[in-house]
User: What shape does this take?
Amino acid sequence: MSEIVKLLVDDDVVLEYNKAIPLPENQKAYLDNMDNMMANGIELGGKKLQQPELTQKAQFVALNMLGHLKQNDDASAIAMFSYLVNRLPELKQVIAKHQESKVGVEFVFDGEYADWQKVEFFPRKH
Assistant: This one.
């Protein structure tokens, strides 16, 4: 079983996180601070959530992470990816797909990323 969690955006691996490397205390504190800030409420899908659940927080963080990636703010995106991996310990992949002006995010808990390789078959000539 791999300890690597991957973020895929439109089928490209954008970030990887190795769960085998312990998170430094200052980064754990940063993630706790994120939780405390979100406990005061978040806006998700145009709705204000006063006491968001973990899944709602994860969606909120994932969407913000994608926004930071789009703005080339890699440090913030990595911190948010770290939040997802550490708060969702069974997470294997985060898959984001853009369609028109919207983005969809999927959390994958049951399958690790497999790099696809195109295989061509040629029929035998008799």
